[in-house]
Specification:
By secondary structure, the chain is an alpha/beta fold. Helices cover 37% and strands 22% of the residues. The protein binds N-(iminomethyl)-L-glutamic acid and fe (iii) ion.
């Protein structure tokens, strides 16, 4: 098994309950696909035939994790971007047959090969900034075959890039037009047919639902999550993005891995998250693009020590964003997260949001060797600059990744 010894490194291990877990003058040993040792340069092990990489003080972090994306879809929604600039709101566009449903039409019409080809540059953009784990949701198919088609594309992307991709079934993302006025019937279809089939085909790692005035109510959301749990699947929810319907608290009471968006989350719901250990996934790209002004309750989340993750939410409507470094900057600038919270949000806490924290998310002995070397010497540099990518090299499961 091959070994790599990093020396003279600045390591943001993300170990510990907060901060960067920063070590200067550090060394790190990779053995096979795992991290075998991290510590002080002077105490480093002396393996006989390891490849030695002199970092010359450069920063090592865990591979970045984008824990919430919708990056497999057909078409684009640039027209809605223009309509919003003329004054239409996201909810108004959705109510007039645009929004998610517009992307559903384009996604249904696209072949699997087309969806794959269109997703490639989106994945490449994320990988170029050090992403080593990615989540991709279905939810623009909204019928059994089209949801399966999306999830197959996600699986194919994982093979193509030899990347860890978590596939999340989001059949309850919006009401498909053919079910207008029959949302309960659609939820029954999701529970009895679509989800079990997707799971049988080995295409589901978790189940998500969109609880919102333009999507499903908390009771319908709970039904979907209950069905998922009956199948032994972990659950999460899009909640409190545009209004407070109590979806996040419901999901937290069910032990959800994460609840995502959360601009309208109440103080009482923060307590529920804290009690259940559910991760709060904040999506500053959607906040920014929709020109939202209601901030998520950051101070309350911090006070109750709810783990905060960040993600791109890459999608054609509310967040056409394909950069986790930009997301980190937006989280600091718009939400006033500290740069350490931002980095934690795209590493350890993002791993938790996917239920993968035992394996990835920090640079610790025994974890998978997903490591990014950055051309900077201080971790705040990652959140501070915009439009300059300092990613110098990426190791994924112990192997150097070639530029995509
Ligand atoms: O996370 N909020 C719901 N779903 C996506 C948006 C999907 C879309 O607008 O196409 C989101 O923002
Ligand atoms: Fe989303």
């Amino acid at each position: 098994m091959s070994q790599t010894l990093f020396i003279n490194a600045t390591v943001a291990s993300m170990q510990g309950a907060s901060g960067y877990g920063l070590r200067e003058q550090a060394a790190l040993l990779v053995d096979g696909d795992k991290i075998a040792w991290v510590g002080d340069m002077n105490a480093r092990p002396a393996p006989l035939d390891a490849e030695v990489v002199d970092c010359r003080r450069r920063l090592l972090t865990p591979g970045l994790i984008d824990c919430h994306t919708h990056l497999v879809y057909g078409g684009d929604r640039a027209d809605e971007f223009e309509r919003r600039l003329e004054g239409a709101s996201y909810a108004e566009i959705a109510a007039s047959g645009g929004g998610i449903v517009a992307t559903v039409n384009a996604t249904r019409a696209a072949s699997e090969a087309q969806l794959f080809a269109e997703a490639l540059p989106r994945v490449r953009a994320l990988l170029a900034e050090g992403v080593t784990t990615l989540e991709i949701k279905s939810g623009y198919g909204l019928d059994s075959d089209s949801e399966i088609k999306m999830l197959r594309v996600a699986a194919k992307l994982a093979d193509e890039f030899r990347l860890r991709i978590q596939k999340t079934f989001l059949g309850a993302h919006a009401l498909p037009p053919e079910y207008a006025g029959r949302s309960d019937d659609y939820i029954t279809l999701v529970c009895e047919e679509m989800l079990p089939r997707a799971q049988r085909e080995g295409l589901v790692d978790a189940v998500d639902v969109f609880i919102e005035s333009i999507a499903f109510d908390p009771l319908q959301g709970e039904k979907v999550l209950a069905c998922a749990q009956d199948l032994g699947l972990p659950v999460k929810a899009h909640a409190e993005q545009l209004s407070d319907l109590g979806g996040a608290a419901m999901a937290a009471r069910r032990g959800a891995l994460s609840v995502d968006h959360l601009e309208y989350l109440s103080a009482a719901a923060v307590d529920e998250l804290a009690a259940s250990g559910t991760v709060a996934v904040l999506l500053p790209g959607a906040y920014y693009v929709l020109r939202e002004t209601q901030l998520p309750p950051i101070a309350a989340l911090r006070a109750r020590q709810v783990p905060i993750a960040l993600a791109s939410d890459a999608n054609p409507g509310s967040s056409p964003v394909h950069s986790l470094l930009l997301i980190m900057n937006l989280a600091c600038t718009l939400f006033r997260l500290t740069p350490a919270e931002a980095l934690r949000g795209v590493t350890l806490n993002a791993a938790r949001a996917l239920g993968l924290e035992r394996d990835i998310g920090s640079l610790e002995t025994g974890k998978q060797a997903d490591i990014v070397m950055w051309d900077v010497t201080r971790p705040a540099m990652l959140s501070y600059r915009l439009g300059l990518n300092p990613c110098a090299a990426v190791m994924q499961a112990g192997q150097w990744r070639m530029p995509a």
